[in-house]
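DM from R.C. (forwarded with permission)

"hey, sorry to bug you on a friday — could you get me a structure for this? deadline for the figure draft is monday and I only need the backbone to look sensible"
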Amino acid sequence: MSARRWIWGVWILVLSCYVVPYGLLGQVHAWYGSFLFWCVVGVLVIVANIMITRTFQSEDVVDGLSRNDEFHDDRENRR
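My reply, with the result:
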């Protein structure tokens, strides 16, 4: 699944955090109604964020060098 779809999924989850507790669970007067829903959605948002960022790479990794390698190479060239 592409990152764009995961981002839309997060937006749907955020919207549902308002609609479900105040709309569908509005008649539930126990504290655990909305709280349980928000906890489950919170875990789902964390999972979605992991899926969105799993393909992110540092610019150093793309170039094939890390900052330490670059520094290390400079030190060897001076000798």
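R.C.: lifesaver. Residues 3-78 form one domain.
me: no worries. Residues 4 and 52 are 8 Å apart (CA to CA).
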